């Protein structure tokens, strides 16, 4: 599904990613861990096509197609979804209207007509029930006055509605209490299937108690320096990242 080969990326001539290799297959969950400044969020942004970053070398192949020259919207239309660390507020635009627009823009990009209103209503009802979302929540302005947990739940609802092939969760556990963390993780788990894949970017092992990864990768200084099973996350929780740095520099 996703193949990243020797990816180098920079911001304002400052190198951040220094040769990332990562292959993600359908049905898999990959966790990306690492200390602050290691390149985790940069990797998420580069995959999603955010224009603040320059790809200096390497390639990103999604579903057999090289997507380096595609913008964020084009990548989203192809099935790449990125949840943000800090979702923006959009006063006056309801959660429902925002998601209707997003779905119909994706359909338009594929040459399809807008989704009929009855189908849209049925889909909204199904996904909101799946994620235990109150219908009143859907009429509120997007993220305006939302708690951290509500913002993240809203993103998982968007993910459920858009049904992406690849979902990238960038520190979706940031600022969440344990109850909100469970709600978000349960939503992600309900949406997983053999046909889609998830990349979870996190500092902490606690999220991985709920979203269990098939593979864990550790970023250090812009490179994946260690990969392993979910047990690697427990080892990082117990030892911290210093032992990884020492191992790399030895």
What does this structure look like?
The structure is a single chain. The chain is of the alpha/beta class. It has a single domain (2-249), classed as P-loop containing nucleotide triphosphate hydrolases (Rossmann fold), CATH 3.40.50.300. The protein contains 9 helices and 12 strands. It has helices at 40-48, 72-78, 95-109, 117-130, 135-138, 148-162, 178-191, 230-239, 242-249, and strands spanning 2-11, 14-24, 29-33, 54-62, 65-66, 80-83, 90-94, 141-142, 166-170, 197-201, 215-220, 223-228. Strands 6-9-10-3-11-12 form a 6-stranded mixed β-sheet, sandwiched between helices. A 4-stranded antiparallel β-sheet has the order 2-1-4-5, covered by helices on one side. β1 and β2 form a beta hairpin. α6 (148-162) packs parallel to α7. The relative contact order is 0.18. The mean pLDDT is 86.
List SSEs in N-to-C order.
EEEHEEHEEHHHEHEHEEEHH
CATH architecture: 3-Layer(aba) Sandwich
Please give the count of helices: 9
Report the sheet with the most strands, covering strand number, pairing sense and barrel closure: 6 strands, mixed
Number of strands: 12
Quaternary organisation: single chain
- The CATH homology group name: P-loop containing nucleotide triphosphate hydrolases
Percent in strands: 25-35%
First-residue to last-residue Cα separation: 34 Å
Structural class estimated from helices and strands: alpha/beta
Q: Within the largest sheet, what's the order of strands?
A: 6-9-10-3-11-12
Give the low-pLDDT segments: none
Mean pLDDT: 86
Tell me the radius of gyration.
Answer: 18 Å
CATH topology (fold) name: Rossmann fold
Number of domains: 1
Question: What's the CATH C level?
Answer: Alpha Beta
| Morphology | globular
Helix fraction?
A: 25-40%
